[in-house]
Amino acid sequence: MQNGNDEEGAPSAAVFAETKRLTLRRITTDDVDNLVELDADPDVMFWITGGRPTPREEVVDDILPAFLDYYRRYPGYGFWAVIEKSTGGFLGWVHFRPAEGDPADDAELGYRLKKSAWGKGYATEASRAVLDRGFADFGVRRVHAETMVVNTASRRVMEKCGLSLVRIFHQDWPDHIPGDEHGDVEYAITREEWDAATG
Ligand SMILES: CC(C)(COP(=O)(O)OP(=O)(O)OC[C@H]1O[C@@H](n2cnc3c(N)ncnc32)[C@H](O)[C@@H]1OP(=O)(O)O)[C@@H](O)C(=O)NCCC(=O)NCCS
Question: In 84, 88, 103, 121, which residue has its Cα 20 to 30 A from 23's Cα atom?
Answer without folding.
Answer: 103
